[in-house]
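W.,

You were right to be curious about this one. When I first looked at the sequence I had no strong expectations either way, so I just let the prediction run and decided to look at it fresh. Below is the sequence, 225 residues in total, followed by the output.
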Amino acid sequence: MCKKVLILEAIERHIVSLDWITLTLMGAFLLLATVRTAYPQRFEDFLSLLSSNKFMMFRGKKNKAFHPFNILLFFVHLISFSLLFYLFFSFFWKDTTLNPAFVFIRIATAYGSFVLLKFGLEKIVGNVFDLDPQIDSYLYQKISYRNFIGLILLIPSLIFVYTFTPTAFALYTLLGILVLSNFFSLLLIYRENQTLITGNWFYFILYLCALEIAPYIILYKLITI
C-alpha cells in the first residue's frame, strides 16, 4: 500500500500591530473628553462652527490663540493630521523597514514644528508691521478652523485603520477634500476681514505669497527631493 506524504511548507506571516495607533487614538479621544468636560459651552459653539458664526463672534473677541481650549484641540488636530500623513506613507512606501510608531512620531514632530514655526513667523510679521490685533484675530480664526478640520478627519482615519483598507483613490480623494477644506476656511476668514484686506492689498498679497504659499512649496520640495 502506497502512503501519501503531505509536505507542509511554513510561510512567514507578517502582522502589523495596531496597538500604538489604538493608544494614539485613545489619547485623542481623551483630550476631546477633557475639552468637552472643562469647556462644555465653548465646545458646543465650536461644533457649530460651519453652520454658525457664534464661536468666532463671542469666543474670539479676546483672540486668545493660546487659550487652553485651543491648545488641547491643537493636539487632537496634530494627531489627526499626522495619522492621515502616516496612512499615506504606509500605503506608498510599503517596503520600508522603519518602525511604524517611529515613523508616526517623526511625521507628528515634523508637522507640529512646521505649524508652530509658521505661527511664530506670522506673529513676528504682525509685530513688525504693528498689526498685532489683526494678526491675533486672523491666527485665532485659522487655528479654530484647522482644529475643526482635524476633528472631522478622525472619522476617515478610524475607518481606514480598523474597517476599510484604503486605496490610492480613497487617499487622494481624502487629501483633495483636506486641501479644499483648508482653502474654503481661508476664504471664510478673508471674507470676514474683507474691509481690512481691501485697504491693504499690497501687504495682503505679500503676506499671502510669503507665508501662505511659499512654506507649502518649500515643504513639498523637501519631501520630494
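Here's what jumped out at me. The CA atoms of residues 45 and 206 lie 33 Å apart. And, maybe more interesting for your project: The chain is about 75% helix and 0% strand.

Coffee later to discuss?

I.
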